[in-house]
Amino acid sequence: MAMADGAFTLGFIGAGKMAEAIARGLDKSGVLPSSRMRTAHTRLPRRETFASFGVTIMESNSKVVEECEVIVLGVKPQVVKEVLVDLKPILSEDKLLVSIAAGVKLKDLEEWAGKARVVRVMPNTPCLVGESAAVMSLGEKATAEDEKLVKVLFEAVGKIWTAKEKLLDAVTGLSGSGPAYIYLAIEALADGGVAAGLPRELALSLASQTVLGAAKMVIDTKKNPGQLKDEVASPAGTTITGIHELEKGGFRATLMSAVIAATKRSEELSKT
């Protein structure tokens, strides 16, 4: 199959910010040139944005599907059914549909997409800066080769793992909503710095870089975060004093509760 050697054509149905990040990431990394990408967005500004870095603009979604072996579906969840049912006659078994529509289940995607092979992906917004944490779930007809190809697509904008679909609500609660929790933490750390006398700009820069550095330490050293915390917290020092305050405020329990609450909300939304 042509897709195995990277010589495939990629279509975008829905050309929002996430689709743009994927397209730019693939082009920039050299994985897939923009000349092999197609879209047909209805809004002129989105069409112009994609055309500006070499994506071919088609006159309709049908033309995009006809020309492409792999189609990324990035429309709003409430219009997924309408869009797919319209395209169903041309979604043949040689098409791979990759849905990034939040909360739309594989069984529905497969029913509406007819014969196409389907993979569902839950990415998050840091894909806009090439640091997505994404998870994919494979549909019944999806192959090991499809899994490899989706991995290539999303590794152009971060990292991706494979999991059963029943875990995607928890993925939404953790990595889907998680960036917002960390933005709050960065803002609060910066506010703390300002309260302690630092200029706002310096406090925000230090807080942001500290979070980035801490995350990289966990990823690169592969040490348990608890161990890394212990390495910073010397006896009767500043760090353990600060940690004591966080524990008094229920910091860890509150973050855990946030993930669980967001997971439950994701479950509710995917049933509506």
UniProtKB/TrEMBL annotation:
Domain Pyrroline-5-carboxylate reductase catalytic N-terminal: start-end pairs: 10-103
Residues that hold NADPH according to the record: N61
Domain of life: Eukaryota
Positions of NADP(+) binding: I13, G14, A15, G16, K17, M18
Reaction(s) this enzyme catalyzes, per UniProt: L-proline + NADP(+) = (S)-1-pyrroline-5-carboxylate + NADPH + 2 H(+); L-proline + NAD(+) = (S)-1-pyrroline-5-carboxylate + NADH + 2 H(+)
GO molecular function, one term: pyrroline-5-carboxylate reductase activity
PROSITE patterns reported in the protein's UniProt record: P5CR (PS00521)
InterPro entries, sorted: 6-PGluconate_DH-like_C_sf, NAD(P)-bd_dom_sf, P5C_Rdtase_cat_N, P5CR-like_CS, P5CR_dimer, Pyrroline-COOH_reductase
Cited SUPFAM superfamilies: 6-phosphogluconate dehydrogenase C-terminal domain-like, NAD(P)-binding Rossmann-fold domains
Pathway: Amino-acid biosynthesis; L-proline biosynthesis; L-proline from L-glutamate 5-semialdehyde: step 1/1
Enzyme Commission identifier(s): 1.5.1.2
Subcellular compartments: Cytoplasm
GO cellular component labels: cytoplasm
Pyrroline-5-carboxylate reductase dimerisation domain sequence ranges: 165-269
Pfam families (alphabetical): F420_oxidored, P5CR_dimer
NCBIfam families: proC (TIGR00112)
Name by which UniProt lists this protein: Pyrroline-5-carboxylate reductase
Protein's organism: Picea sitchensis
